[in-house]
Amino acid sequence: MTIKGVLAASVIASAAVVLTTQLSAHHSLTVEFDISRTVTMSGVITEMKWTNPHAWLYVDVKDEKGQVRNWAIEFGSPNALYRRGWRQTDLPPRNTITVTGYPSLDQSLRISATDVKLPDGRTLFAGSPISGGQ
Amino acid sequence: MRTALCLVAGWLSIAPLASAQAPSGAAPYRAPRTIDGQPDLQGIWQAVNTAVWNIQDHPAELGIPAGQGIVEGNEIPYLPLALARRQMNYRNRHTGDPETKCFMVGTPRINYMPYPFEIVQTPAQVTILYEYVHTSRHLRFTGKHPEGAIQWIMGDSRARWEGDTLVVDVVHFGDQNWFDRSGNYHSADMHLVERWTRTGPDHLSYEATIEDSKVFSRPWKIKMPLYRRVEPNIQLLDYECQAYLEAAKDRENR
Amino acid sequence: MRIHIGFAAAGIAVQCLIYPSSAASQQIPSIPPTKESVCPDNDPVPLLACAREKLKSFKPPRTRDGKTDLSGFWGGTQAPHENLEAHPRTPDDNGGPSFVVDPADGKVPMQAWAEVKRRENRAKYIDQNAQCFQSGVPRHLYMGQYQWLQTPTRLVQLSEETNAYRNIILDGRPHLGADVVVWQGDSRGHWEGDTLVVVTKNQVGRGWLDQQGRFVTDAATVTERFSLFDANSILWEITIDDPLVYTRPFTMASALRRNNRADFEIWEESCYEGESNAESLRNLGYRTYPGFSAREAKAAKETFERAAAAGSAK
């Protein structure tokens, strides 16, 4: 394998391993989501529910016809966020975010998130909370 | 799902409290110690009252026993808007009560649900294992309440001893819990202080002070005895409400 | 995102590529062993041999009543919930070698009728974990964060996941009568030297042992041996005996690793209260797993074997 190939594989492998260790705790991902493809969409945060076993982010997304629909984005557990210092009050209100994830098999408006980015490119709820003003 | 308390009464040690209480002027009951030297609260305990139906005085109704409440002074000092909400809860109680959805019921209600619970004590914490939906609470002698806005159903409990009384400070609640099946409720801002005291070989006294300025105009208290389950070989079983409910949903879906 | 002890995302991503698979794992990649563990906790067969060697000389810390002190914070090290047998890495699975150490071929010895039911389970029913039910024994201890509390008469194993607990009674009383079945089983523990031996009966028989649909009935007896072989490691041996489902008792092994993170606490995970995945699973046609009592299993087994005999008689 070329060095490029190894690096590419390592990115895929690391994403896959992070994902499975997150979600395998509860149930098989493939039963509920189509893991053969990802979808990406941008929209405005309307609400976040800090529930177990998954926290949920709700996002208003405009489809190709210009119709706005509210999507449910599945996150990891709130305790993992709490332990890294994140709190419900940290969520930037009415912010636009870009979500990538696996679509639901039953065609409902839900995604199992693999990546959630703020407009400045930062990953939401990764690492530690933003310092200053919190 | 609504357990008739009368079926359980025969199994409890409901010896008259006079035999456990010290006559006035005498020293209070001194509990035996655990292997680590703490007052021993361990064992299987259960409330025998009707607080789960209504924490205040109430008459009987079909399927609901009458009860003398556990609220000191029998008055809950609701703010005017909060009282309206409480009354709305009462009207919606058959679907609005978290217990109807097999959810955990929060603190202090978990302590007077009609199911036993077991207290296990170790040096760093007192753990309470409840039979109802396998709820557990950890009353920790170490650490502090984590900071910031956190919502847990059972709250975060930090404990200390005041003489032989376990004093427990509880915060970090959500806003979905009810105190009883009649719609008495609190907000996520509730601050609870519990006091657990052995009053005899088979009795525990439980008191809690409730503070919640979003809902009540002043703090108020509840108080009740807890009775030891004295049957030989008594042990905690389970009430996995969720499993029964999900099976029922399957039958509806068919 | 949810992180389990030993599974810190960055560490795993690097280690996965550079850590060679052991020959014993038949070239199937596994979660790497916990850093600093004295025995390879990512492969049960070498783990068992190594741990037994350590046990010959290891002197465990003791409780006030003179027993091995098993209390503290522990974490699972592998992912048996995916599949008890050897299985490859996929986007859905971490993969790993078999957890079965006896029989030596690493295969779970299912009876023919039970193997058919296993496949049916996967096709029709929801894994109890997805609905936030408790997992039963031994599955509740496979992975995640735990706190074990120990007194002279109790060993309580607290899980963060779905706030589950298992209450092991150490006072020598008899088991519950056969008519009372409970989700986490009825566990009795006694000491054999420094090892805690736990016998569990009276499980409800409504949980899967893994996501492949393997199961036990309420007639199962699960025997576990917990041996501290190092200050930070417990050898966990599990023997499952359910004569209606398996052709013989079989034994698995895994390690539990101490979580030495300062100030760590088990926090509330109110799983069922926020659970919404079951609805979408129901929309896809899945149903809650009804389980097997011993009586139901016996009837199913007899029906299957009669049909098989009739088929082969033709």
Report what the structure shows:
The complex is a heterotrimer of chains A (134), B (254) and C (314). Chain A has 134 residues and is α+β, with helices and mostly antiparallel strands. Chain A has a domain at 29-117: OB fold (Dihydrolipoamide Acetyltransferase, E2P) (Beta Barrel), CATH 2.40.50. Chain A has helices spanning 3-23, 78-83, and strands spanning 39-49, 56-62, 68-74, 96-103, 110-117. The longest helix of chain A is centred in the first third of the chain and has 21 residues, at 3-23. Chain B is α+β, with helices and mostly antiparallel strands. Chain B has helices at residues 6-9, 80-91, 93-96, 241-253, and strands at 43-47, 117-122, 125-130, 136-140, 156-162, 165-171, 191-200, 203-211, 220-228. In chain B, strand 8 (203-211) and strand 9 form a beta hairpin. Chain C has a single domain, classed as Beta Barrel (Lipocalin), CATH 2.40.128. Chain C is built from 6 helices and 12 strands. In chain C, strands 1, 2, 4, 5, 6, 7, 8, 9, 10 and 11 form a 10-stranded antiparallel β-sheet that branches. Chain C has a two-stranded parallel ribbon with strand order 3-12. The radius of gyration of chain C is 20 Å and the shape is globular. The A-C interface holds A 6, 9-10, 13-14, 16-32, 35, 49, 51-54, 56, 75-77, 79-80, 82-83, 104-106, 108, 110, 125 and C 1-4, 7, 9-10, 12-14, 16-17, 79, 81-82, 89, 91-94, 126-127, 129-130, 132, 143-144, 160-162, 211, 267-271, 273-277, 280-281, 283-284, 286.
